[in-house]
Amino acid sequence: MLTGPRPLTGGVSTVGSLRADEQVVVRPEVSGRIARIHFTEGGTVRAGQPLFSLDASLARAALNEAAANLENSRRAAARAGQLVGERLIARADYDRARAALGVDQARVASARAALSKMTLTAPFSGQVGLREVSVGEVVNAGQALVTLVRLDPIEVDFSVPETQLSKLQRGQRIRVEVDAYPGDAFGGEVVAIDPVVDPNSRSTKLRARIANPDGRLRPGQFARLQLEVGGSGGEALLVPEQALMQDGQTRFVYTVVDGKARRTEVQTGTRTPGFVQVTSGLKAGDVVITAGQAKPMMRDGVPVVSVPAQGAQAAKPPASAAK
Q1: How far apart are CA 323 and CA 308, in angstroms?
Q2: Can you give the pTM of this predicted structure?
Q3: What domains sit in the chain, N to C, each tagged with a CATH number?
Q4: CB atoms within 10 A of CB 221
Q5: C-alpha distances in Å from residue 118, one per residue of 74, 111, 142, 269
Q6: Looking at the predicted structure, is the pLDDT value of residue 99 above 60?
Q7: How far is 321 from 314, CA to CA, in rounded Å?
Q8: How many whole angstroms separate alpha carbon 214 and alpha carbon 130?
Q9: What is the pLDDT of residue 125?
Q10: Of 45, 78, 131, 238, which sits 20 to 30 A from 169 (CA to CA)?
């Protein structure tokens, strides 16, 4: 494909990943044996609903012991109060009795807190995933037991070139499509804009929220987005999406120089359907390879033959023309 400047519309097409509105991996704070599982895998749960119960026999016994000691301390403190009033014991003895009462009160509170940690509850309403443990299994503190997600609403994270920053604002409408439901579009709106621009990609991250009452959309899905930013982007160099490759944080294309392939690093900007804006690394007239780059043999110096892109004349892509 022979690159050349073409008009760039105000709408921005980009890609992103769906993420849960809320997501947490349920982990115990203490070690113990799983005594009961209170949910069905893949089912829904309410906030505060028990998910797992650990064997609480030792924790309950510790609480009972602490409660018994507290009762004795209360009686001893009461007697000491009566005796100190009658001047039958020293004030220091009374103070020691009151201090012992305070210690036992703290021990009861600690034992009660330890007992409460034997039951793991849902921090919010949502859907549980596949559990990682079974009844009777001994688990360690911090071990992953199950993932809980809230799917409605669902969010999508994506990036927009810094050249569009002045046109971005919360509340902008987006249109989202996913491969799982071809032909269906889901509407949403921008809810957050990252204040920092990525120095590598020269883009900023955005987050949008989409209503998902039927749970059709799932976290981790690849999403194609259309964001209307208004105005015209002027002219830009665009290359077909299939020509763009990525190695870590580095984006590149293969160009043709003297009949051979040359790896050329590029910086990208706006995406439009089927094409990606190249902001640096290419110039008008460069020949970009759009087929064969996925083959293992494609590397610097490989001889190539340029052929017209099939259907290029009829399609008239907005960013490139067939050689």
Answers
A1: 6
A2: 0.63
A3: 2-20+150-321 (2.40.30.170), 31-54+118-144 (2.40.50.100), 57-116 (1.10.287.470)
A4: 18
A5: 28, 11, 13, 52
A6: yes
A7: 10
A8: 20
A9: 95
A10: 238
User: Using the 8-state DSSP alphabet, how is residue 237 labeled?
Assistant: E
Q: Which two tokens stand for residue 250?
A: 């580095």
**Tokens coding 141:** 């503190």
pLDDT the model gives residue 318: 38
Rounded Cα distance, 291 and 305, in Å: 11
Tell me the mean pLDDT in the region 116-134. 96
pLDDT, tens digit (0-9, with 9 covering 90-100), for 35-74: 999 999 999 999 999 999 999 999 999 999 999 999 999 9
With beta carbons less than 8 A apart as the criterion, state whether 219 and 18 touch. Answer: yes
As a whole number of angstroms, the distance between CA 34 and CA 37 comes to 8
Phi, psi torsion values for 73, nearest 5 degrees? -65, -35
User: Could you give the CA distance from residue 276 to residue 243 in angstroms, rounded to a whole number?
Assistant: 9
Work out the number of other CB atoms within 10 angstroms of the CB of residue 301. Answer: 9
**pLDDT tier at 312, thresholds 50, 70, 90:** very low
- Identify residue 320 by its one-letter amino acid code: S
